[in-house]
């Protein structure tokens, strides 16, 4: 029976960082994953998605510039897109495991559960540890509808060998919209069925509204306020039954993805045997990211109750857990976090939406505009560009910023710097930026 100082479940952004740091402090560390090593971001999330997106970006620019400098046939070769992404990601599992082993971490593979607060078993092996770290991330939610087993999930997108004629996404959030934009540009007929009345529900209504228009321009059939009730297999195709406006509808599609959200991966771990309380948001943790019910357990990354499921946050939380395990007393301090949906155009946001600010009765000025006629958009023959900035009237501090543009992912970072360092709106507007650039447009926001 192996005995550890720290045993970590999950080898993604969060788990591997904690393992590395604890080992460097001379602790005896073990780690386990029930899939290949490396986690979601590097293999089934951010990185392969962005690699695949490079072709969509090239396609979009070339298509927009046709007749203004670009000639000839412009098309996406899906097989090459997949091969390109796989070239970058295929060696990650082995490299991650080798890196951990080289630091002295004992690496395991398997699916296990807790016997008690100090004992974890898998495949006939028993592990004892003084401390445990839960870093098992999230997985797609179960829809609980008949025929759900016919639906694909986000990891399947990265192994989709051939493109069918028609694909449907159930859920118009980050994943549904990023994937649907990629497939639509590759020539697939795409439908998005979203239960809410806007796409990208956490984002500002104003910018999400432009994404709806941009998605429809691209030929994506977006159906809002609709709920899928069952999935039927009909020969080689799927028949989706959904309700909208109190009536039943149906749709035939070749493939359908469940992109209706993700939930913490905790069920199979039987954490209740260890006295660790979990909730809808994952493992319930305090400000030190220590379990609220069992002091030898920590949680970080997507699976912790304090997290927003974004890679930089998983890293930030892992840093806090590693510090607390190695003798420092470190609190997790919430920060203003920018995030972006990598559609084309991109939708980015940070801080409060106008509605959230209004709900709090804040004394604010809202600066917003459809900026599609500005130079940066016209230069690309593009169509959409808009922003909304919410500013506190007393302090001139930025409470929220929201942008839809071809470079929103970068422009929003300037707002992240301002908001996390108490710069005023006037200060970032007075800053000298490179010209002509997207950042320079902030002077006119
Ligand atoms: C399609 C997609 C695109 C995304 N794009 C972005 C993006 O552009 N930007 C961004 O910031 N974020 C993005 N995210 C979110 C980001 O990937 C996650 O926030 C991040 O990967 C979480 O890291 P983590 O270490 O907490 O969990 P993970 O990386 O998910 O790691 C958890 C690990 O635990 C393992 N595991 C699970 N259950 C068990 C078990 N029972 N026993 C042992 N091991 C287990 C898993 O196999 C996995 O290796 C995306 C997510 C998806 C799905
Ligand atoms: N670019 C990025 O940073 C990025 C990209 C992908 C994922 N992520 C992270 O992963 C998390 C999960 O992403 P996601 O897209 O799975 O979830 P999400 O919460 O962003 O979107 C899920 C959508 O599905 C809808 N929905 C839920 N049930 C439904 C049903 N039965 N029928 C129709 N629609 C339904 C919801 O209303 C919501 O709009 C995100 O919160 C995000 O933090 C980030």
From TrEMBL:
Keywords, alphabetical: FAD, Flavoprotein, NAD, Nucleotide-binding
Entry note: cofactor: Binds 1 FAD per subunit.
Top-level taxon of the source organism: Bacteria
SUPFAM superfamilies: FAD/NAD(P)-binding domain (SSF51905), FAD/NAD-linked reductases, dimerisation (C-terminal) domain (SSF55424)
Matching InterPro entries: FAD/NAD-bd_sf, FAD/NAD-binding_dom, FAD/NAD-linked_Rdtase_dimer_sf, Pyr_nuc-diS_OxRdtase, Pyr_nucl-diS_OxRdtase_dimer
Coiled-coil regions listed: none
Cofactor (UniProt): FAD
Domain FAD/NAD(P)-binding: residue ranges: 4-311
Any one GO MF annotation of this record: oxidoreductase activity
Residues annotated for FAD binding in this entry: 50, 112, 302
Nucleotide-binding is among the record's keywords: yes
Similarity section: Belongs to the class-I pyridine nucleotide-disulfide oxidoreductase family.
Protein name in the entry: NAD(P)/FAD-dependent oxidoreductase
């Amino acid at each position: 029976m192996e005995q550890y100082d720290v045993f970590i479940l999950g080898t993604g952004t969060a788990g591997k960082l904690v393992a590395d740091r604890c080992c460097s402090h001379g602790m005896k560390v073990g780690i386990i994953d029930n899939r290949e090593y490396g986690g979601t971001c590097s293999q089934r999330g951010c990185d392969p998605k962005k690699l695949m997106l490079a072709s969509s970006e090239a396609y979009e620019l070339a298509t927009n510039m046709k007749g203004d400098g670009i000639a000839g046939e412009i098309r996406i070769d899906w097989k090459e897109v997949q091969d390109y992404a796989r070239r970058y990601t295929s060696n990650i599992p082995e490299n991650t495991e080798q890196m951990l082993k080289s630091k002295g971490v004992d690496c395991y593979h398997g699916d296990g559960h807790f016997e008690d607060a100090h004992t974890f078993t898998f495949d006939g092996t028993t592990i004892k540890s003084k401390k445990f770290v839960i870093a098992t991330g999230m997985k797609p939610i179960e829809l609980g509808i008949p025929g759900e087993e016919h639906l694909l999930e986000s990891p399947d997108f990265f192994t989709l060998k051939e493109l069918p004629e028609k694909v449907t996404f159930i859920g118009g959030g980050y994943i549904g919209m990023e994937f649907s934009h990629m497939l639509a540009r590759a020539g697939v007929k795409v439908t998005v069925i979203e239960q809410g009345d806007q796409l990208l529900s956490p984002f500002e209504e104003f910018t999400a509204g432009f994404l709806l228009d941009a998605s429809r321009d691209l030929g994506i059939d977006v159906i809002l306020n609709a709920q899928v009730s069952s999935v039927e297999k009909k020969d080689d195709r799927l028949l989706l039954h959904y309700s909208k406006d109190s009536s039943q509808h149906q749709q035939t599609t070749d493939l359908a993805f469940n992109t209706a959200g993700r939930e913490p991966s905790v069920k199979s771990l039987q954490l209740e045997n260890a006295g660790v309380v979990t909730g809808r948001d994952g493992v319930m943790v305090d400000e030190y990211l220590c379990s609220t019910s069992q002091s030898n357990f920590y949680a970080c990354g997507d699976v912790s109750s304090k997290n927003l499921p974004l890679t930089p946050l998983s890293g930030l939380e892992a840093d806090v857990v590693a510090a607390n395990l190695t003798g420092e007393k470190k609190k997790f301090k919430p920060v203003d976090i920018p995030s972006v949906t990598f559609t084309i155009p991109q939708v980015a946001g940070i801080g409060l939406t106008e509605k959230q600010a209004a709900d709090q009765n804040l004394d604010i000025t809202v600066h917003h505009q459809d900026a599609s006629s500005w130079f940066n958009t016209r230069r690309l023959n593009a169509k959409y560009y808009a922003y909304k900035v919410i500013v506190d009237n007393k302090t001139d501090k930025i409470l929220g910023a929201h942008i839809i543009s071809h470079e929103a992912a970068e422009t929003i970072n300037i707002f992240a710097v301002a908001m996390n360092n108490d710069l005023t709106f006037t200060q970032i507007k007075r800053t000298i930026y490179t010209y002509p650039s997207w950042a320079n447009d902030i002077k006119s926001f």
